[in-house]
Specification:
This protein is of the alpha+beta class. It contains three helices and seven strands.
Length: 72
């Protein structure tokens, strides 16, 4: 059961592997729509990346420097 820790310290727990996009959707539909990628334990990954174990996650959007690089 992955426990996903967000930058604000909140944790979301799942019964099965979960994608970055699924976590974003659980946080809110606006964030899911804006999601470009994620940073899992400090590694930049695609929004479809499956998180299989406990991890820290930062959602990347166009407002982030990394998001702008992805768009370009």
């Amino acid at each position: 059961m992955p426990a996903i820790t967000l930058p604000d310290g909140n944790q979301l727990e799942y019964d099965a592997p979960v994608s970055v996009m699924d976590v974003a959707a659980d946080i809110g539909p606006g964030l899911a729509k804006a999601t470009l990628a994620g940073e899992v334990d400090g590694v930049l990954v695609d929004a479809g990346f499956e998180i299989e174990g406990d991890a820290s996650l930062r959602i990347i959007t166009a407002r982030d420097a990394e998001g702008l690089e992805i768009i370009r």
